[in-house]
Amino acid sequence: MKKALTIAGSDTCGGAGIQADLKTFSAHGVYGMSVITAVTAQNTQGVFGVLDVTVDIIEKQIDAIFDDIDVDAVKIGMVSQTDTIKTIASTLKKYSTKNIVLDPVMISKSGYDLLKPEAKEALISELIPLATIITPNAPEAEVITGIKIESIQDMEEAAKKIYDLGVENVLVKGGHLSLESKEAIDVLYNGQDFRYYKSPIIETKNTHGTGCTLSSAIASNLALGNNIERSVELAKSYITIAIENSFSIGKGVGPTHHFY
Ligand code: PLP
Q1: Active-site hit among 209, 213, 236, 256
Q2: Please, where are the H alpha helices in the chain?
Q3: Where do the Pyridoxamine kinase/Phosphomethylpyrimidine kinase domain residues begin and end (predicted)?
Q4: Does the active-site annotation cover 191?
């Protein structure tokens, strides 16, 4: 059985964060493990509070896994603050971790800061160089690069700039852009070539946790032995079907559906 680890925040309502990641791993037939970086109180309507887990306990959680278990892929999600980021980076380096998928979580769809603004620099200098692939959406790519993203060309330019920060592959997700083609186009850059992944834009309000789900689907596929291009392709079709089957569970933005 392949084994994947998520290092991320907990989402009480189960649509994003650790809970989405573990459901995604299971749906791929991958054994899921978790290091919890923060506990959020949230539902489909918003985030009402966050408790950051201490760096000491984050380090002990990572050590507990790697001292005992072989990990085939790691997904990193909400990391919240500078000290947390530095601890995760130094601990993962100690174990020469492979297949690291970094989802640079910054702001929830409901507008809550899940990454403290001052922690952005640490994310860029400490975590990006460790990652096999980073998966920013267009607004996150704008924050990382300072490039205003309105077109595929802007996504390509941002991907190149992020690649130069030391990551092996960059997937800039275009779902937030209103392109003329009415498609969600993601751009993958590996330092040499661009690849384009297209899917129809699905009209639904229930998109809570889509970024978490896509990144943990990529991690699952890497754990299963697929290369980056194939892992992104499989993950893109997984998230598209998950959004097509998304549903309402409360008064706000509902979750996507996890199955294979
Ligand atoms: N909560 C946690 C713990 C997350 O990691 C994330 C996403 O990345 C979110 C909430 C935000 O979810 P969304 O913006 O998809 O509603």
Answers
A1: 209
A2: 17-27, 55-66, 82-94, 120-122, 138-145, 152-163, 210-223, 228-244
A3: 11-257
A4: no
The strand pair at 133-134 and 169-173 is best described as parallel
pLDDT in tens, 159-200: 999 999 999 999 999 987 876 777 899 999 999 999 999 998
What domains are there in the chain, each with its CATH number?
3-244 (3.40.1190.20)
pTM of this structure: 0.97
Give the Å distance between the CA of 193 and the centre of ligand 1: 30
Does 108 contact ligand 1 (Cβ within 6 A)?
A: yes
Cα 192 to ligand 1 centroid, rounded to whole Å: 31
User: Does ipTM come in above 0.85?
Assistant: yes
